[in-house]
Amino acid sequence: MKEPILQPRAHRRAQVDAPVAPPADALGVPKRQRVLIVDDSLVNRELLRSLLEQEVDLEEAVDGTTALAMADDSDFDLVLLDVMMPDLSGYEVCKRLRASRGNEHLPILLLTSLTEQSERVQGFDAGADDFITKPINTVELRLRVRAFLRARRLYRERQALLDDLQRLHDLKDDLATLLVHDLRNPLAGLVAHLQLIDTDALTEDARESLESARNATQRLREMIDDLLQVRILEEGALEVVRDRQRVDAILAEAVETMDGPARARDIALALVRTGAHEIACERTLVRRAVENLLANAIRHGPAGSTVGIHTLATPTAIEVRVEDEGPGIPEEQRPLLFSKYGTTELRRGGRRSGHGLGLYLVSLVMRAHGGQVRVEEGVRRGTRVVMSFPRVPLET
Question: Which pTM does this prediction carry?
């Protein structure tokens, strides 16, 4: 015969305070939470129902198999689960509920007359949140049920907020992608018309203004390309096709592309050739990543300084290093450098500097190649950014 579920009347405490108001949904409409009672004893189920039905909606299961089927088909906020049952023990039911629910926080309270420490450890190992020992104290039962239901409600509210934030984030990215597509055609027309202007017929001031306009439109086109590339990489829609590439050739192309912007800021680009290193990569993506690192170094380097770029072979990686002579980045702020739309507080002058998507794209490119990117203190007071490609066997 099963242990009685309630304490003898002489040992029960006074009735707990009045039931709390049921939780409300986002519109303020009262919403009762749902509790599943799993016990093969009809008497125990009826007693639990009499204690809780004023505060919550209750469902009952007579065994573990039924309980698992009901949990699959319905959404519960709490499970009151008897340990000793004929078909499946409460431990096994608890373990299967946890496995099927993944990371969802569904409170499970085990009802048991077992008091051995090893039995409690077995219950916690199966995934139970707490125990209620038979015979049950009615005050304790109500208080524990309310506490776990409150935690469940807070969990659901947080998840709803996170879902809303994710939808807003996706909407923002989708909107940005649509805007970028709409901007590409008029921008291409603007670039074409600027290239057609005859500079011989212009004054010196007009030629300088035209060159500034051309540089600005080129930078705008690069920013748009970065945004599109980021979206593709984030969604995993781009299949990275790697083949055997000479690193020094990729760096030379990137330096040639960024030579104009560097000259405009009176900054020298110094490419140090250190051997014919090869990596397996998607050439266009890696070149774009290097160009973004060079653009960032040029942007933060003082006039008259040098941006150095070279490769280094280690036993496990081929590294591409870009180093500037700018003010540097405090160590605690370096992790922000490759975050999406991140900013860093520069050491000199305390001004904030945004770096948009360019460096974030670098991190995505390295991730797609199984590598990593890191920031170090430069030899000449500035910042060194290192792209580390893993050494892998190259097809001949």
Answer: 0.50
